[in-house]
Amino acid sequence: MGMRENMAETKLPLSGIVVLDLTRVRSGPTAVRQLSDYGANVIKIEEPDAKDSENSAFDRRQGSDFQNLQRNKRSMTLNLKAPEGVAIFKRMVEKADVVVENYRPGVKHRLGIDYDSLRKINPRLIYASISGFGQEGPYRDRPGIDQVVQGMGGLMSITGLPGQGPVRAGIAITDLGAGLFLSYGIVLALFERERSGEGQWVQTSLLQAMIALLDFQAARWLVDREIPPQAGNRHPTGIPTDAFKTADGVINIAASGDLYPRLCHAIGMPELITHPDYCDFKVRSRNRDALHKVIGERLLTRKSGEWIELLNKAGVACGPIYNVKEVFSDPHVQTLGMAQAVDHPKLGRLNLVGQGVTLTRTPPRLRVAAPDRGQHTQEVLKEFGVDAGDIQDLKKRGII
Fold this sequence. Notes:
The relative contact order is 0.13. The protein is elongated, with a radius of gyration of 26 Å. Helix 1 packs across helix 8 (173-196) and helix 8 (173-196) packs across helix 9. The two termini are 24 Å apart. It has 2 domains: 6-214 and 337-396, 3-Layer(aba) Sandwich (Rossmann fold); 241-322, formyl-coa transferase, domain 3. A hairpin with a 3-residue loop joins strand 10 (339-344) and strand 11 (348-353). The strands form 3 sheets. The chain has a 6-stranded parallel beta sheet, with helices on both faces. Strands 7-8-9 form a 3-stranded antiparallel beta sheet, covered by helices on one side. With 400 residues, the protein is α/β, with parallel strands linked by helices. It has helices at 27-37, 64-69, 83-93, 105-111, 115-119, 146-152, 155-158, 173-196, 206-214, 216-222, 259-266, 271-274, 281-286, 288-299, 304-313, 324-329, 331-336, 377-383, 388-396, and strands at 18-21, 41-46, 74-77, 98-101, 126-131, 201-205, 241-245, 250-254, 317-320, 339-344, 348-353.
C-alpha cells in the first residue's frame, strides 16, 4: 500500500499489516502488543488532551507497566468525539488491515466506528473487540475489571488454601487471557482473509477468556458434575503434588502417576510404593494428607538445592519457588532471553518482558520503546494523505 513499514521492519511475520489501536488499560494493549512485537505497523490512537503529562504527580507513561505494554507502537492523537476526527479515522480505515478496540459495547456505536459502519468502507477489515462481558447478553454494558471477572469466572473459588475463602490470582489473568485470545483470533482472521478476501468481526471478553482458561476445572463440572474446591498448592488430581518444606526453604514437587515410584526411590522410601495406603492412585487420593506428611518429614532432612538436584536426576518434576528477582537471575531464564532491552530517549536502556513464543527465522523483537502521546501524529497523517496545511488546521481546532 506504499505505507512506511513499522519501525523499518520488513522481515517479521506481520510486517505490512496496518493496525489501528483504540485500546486502553490492559486487555486490549496486550492483544496489540502481540501484533506489534511480530512486526505489525501499529498506530496507537489517543485522545488529544494530555492526561499523563510530565507535570502530573505520576507520569504513568514513564512507568514500567506502560513501557512494557506499549512498546513497538507509534502514537497519534485524534478526537473521535468530533465529526472531523471520525472522518479522519475512517480515512485511515480505508488502508488498514485491523482495528482493535476495548470500549464498552455501546461506545463504538455512539461514535459511529462500529464494525458494520467500518466494513462498508473496507470489506477486508478485521475488526477486533474485547469487553468485560461480551457484545451481547444481560451483562454486556457492565464495566469489566479483572478481579470482578476472576470471581464471576470461577477462578477465585479454586485459588487459595482449602477453607481460606476466595483468593484472586496474582496477575491480571482475565485481561492477559482475553488479550492473547484476541490476538490469536486476529491472526486467524487474517489467514482466513487470504482465502475469502473478506474481513470479519473477532470478539472476546474477560469472562469468556476466564472460563476458557478454567479448562479441566470447568470440565470437572460440565462432565463429572463435580464442583472443584480450593486445593492450595496441591494439584486437584495429581498426587503427590505440593509445595514441600525442606531444611532451608520450600520446593515444588509433582510426582503423580509413573513419577511416584521414582520419587519414593529418590527420597529413600521405596516401601511407599507398595504400602497398602499409597499403592495406587485411588488409595493415594484417599490418604493424601498422610502421604504428604510422610514425604514432607523426609524432605526436611536436606536443603532445597540438594533435593532439586537429586530429584531431577531421578526424573521427578521438581523446582525452586522463586520471587521475581530470582526468576530473572536464573541462568536458564537468561538463556531463554525473557528480559529484552530497548532504548528509551528519556529513561535510557530498559529491560522489558520478552514474548512467550519464538519463531526461529522471524523471532519477535523489541525495536522501539513506548511512544510519547501524539509523538507520531504528523508522520502518520502524512502517510494517510493528509497535507501539512490541513494538519496544522486540525491541531488548532483540537482535532489532533
